[in-house]
Amino acid sequence: MSLENKFIENVLLAKEEFIKLDQVLSRFNIFEATDMGRREVKHTKFLTYLLNPNESHDLGDAFLKNFLLRTVTSLDALSDFPSVLDLDLSFARVDAEFSKFEANGKNKKGTLDCLIRIPYRGAVPTGSPQEVIIAIENKIDASQGQNQLEKYTKLLEMCFPSKNIYKIYLTLEEEKPDDADWTNILYKNTVLPAVDLIIENLSDKGSTYIKEILNDYRDLLSENDPQAINADALAVELTQDEKIKSYVEHLKGKDISIDSVGSIYIKHKKALDYLYQFKHDARSKTLEWWERKLPQMKNLAPIDDGEILLFYREASNRTYFHFNLLSDGNRSELIKYADAPDRVWLKSTKCPINFAIKMVSDDASNTTKCSAALILGPMRSQEKREEIYDYLWKIINGEQHKPACNLYWNALTNSKSGIKPVNQEDPKVWIEEKILQADSMHQIVFKKWVKDLSEKLNHGLTEFFNN
């Protein structure tokens, strides 16, 4: 090993950012350690385990109740669901991988991920349903197969004729079910808040183990994992140094031994691999470009009554770039209603309304799927949040049918922006085409649809807070 490389090793070991990055990446997570990451069968089994009130987690029916309440209240399609108080959740039967086998032992209709059967409390009048049936098909990275949901509908009709069955298509990202009988719900609007409530309400006594497991599960599913945000921020700092970048590049492709790469790679492999991947990820290059191109600009544009539209860039990672265009007054008022300090959506400024540019890497095609959203995130007072949602819906969407307010309400539709999710080799090109533009002075400004939507948003918020 050259003297220069030995010197760079010492530089790295002396950098606080490198040691912190190593600590962040070395944090133990049971789901990552067992390679559960994106394994759909394992996800389904763990979710079914939590939903089952008679499993060994000692949560009783608390998770099932929270999940049902979040699911029912977030979807108009389930408005006819009975009151949870009328159901005997403690006697719920929860089956993973439910299927119906024919006499010859062959499965003719497929295997459903999860089936929940919940009896009504007390005596039920003759002719009334004796139980509520909820079918869940769970997708993590994969999409629905051709006619898959239709097959499950037939399976359910065969097993439970003349029964009212609520069919749930559970996904990480929005995806319209091919079968109209099924309703799409998202993890972030149902499973995650149910987990949060359990963690918050678990007693300190005798529940440390399950609380740690649930925290790990939450981190696995969270779109705004603090660990990922911290790791990316540290990687940005470290990769500013060209010598460090060159050294990390030099390590790849070598035999992993102390003689060939030095003991630093043996001791700090996760941090060095992360820096290498970060350097070669199109999203990290875009993140660096984004933060260089868009410092905290202010006085973006006047709106009215002396109010100025201001730009704030929030804490971002490779998957999400967060920013908002708000007046100082509206931003200050919104922060008053931010979620509890330990559960706040974006810790950088605590503002619960933000634009989000989402970039999901597709390694198979070497592209990045880019999309944009305007999100109303969690707030401390659900009642106040519903009031703000109702007001903003009319401002942004007029008198169109208003859906229930999910935990993360996406106020931006394709019709509002004129853009659709697209796979792009270079996310910077997409952002410059769809989000940003250069004016005559070669300064960065936002596309008209972004500013128009922001002005509508600010008018509505100003009116709301003044009333």
Number of strands: 14
Summarize model confidence as the mean pLDDT: 80
C-alpha-based Rg, rounded: 25 Å
The biggest beta sheet is recorded as: 7 strands, antiparallel
Large-scale geometry: globular
Spans of at least 5 consecutive residues whose pLDDT stays below 50 are: none
Q: Report the span from N to C terminus.
A: 70 Å
Give the SSE map:
Blueprint: H1 3-14, H2 16-26, H3 30-33, H4 40-51, H5 62-73, E1 93-101, E2 107-119, E3 131-139, H6 148-159, E4 165-171, E5 182-186, H7 191-201, H8 208-221, H9 226-238, H10 242-251, H11 258-261, H12 263-267, H13 269-280, H14 282-293, E6 301-302, E7 308-313, E8 320-326, H15 328-336, E9 353-362, E10 367-376, H16 382-397, E11 409-410, H17 414-417, E12 422-424, H18 427-434, E13 436-438, E14 444-446, H19 448-466
Helix pairs in contact: 2-9, 5-7, 7-8, 16-19
Structure explained in plain terms:
With 467 residues, the protein is of the alpha+beta class. It folds into three domains: 3-27 and 224-280, no CATH class; 34-201, 3-Layer(aba) Sandwich (Trna Endonuclease, Chain: A, domain 1); 286-466. The protein is 43% helix and 19% strand. The protein has helices at residues 3-14, 16-26, 30-33, 40-51, 62-73, 148-159, 191-201, 208-221, 226-238, 242-251, 258-261, 263-267, 269-280, 282-293, 328-336, 382-397, 414-417, 427-434, 448-466, and strands at residues 93-101, 107-119, 131-139, 165-171, 182-186, 301-302, 308-313, 320-326, 353-362, 367-376, 409-410, 422-424, 436-438, 444-446. Strands 6, 7, 8, 9, 10, 11 and 12 form a seven-stranded antiparallel beta sheet that branches. A five-stranded mixed beta sheet has the order 1-2-3-4-5. Helix 5 crosses helix 7 (191-201). The chain starts with a helix and ends with a helix. The relative contact order is 0.09. The model has no long low-confidence stretch (mean pLDDT 80).
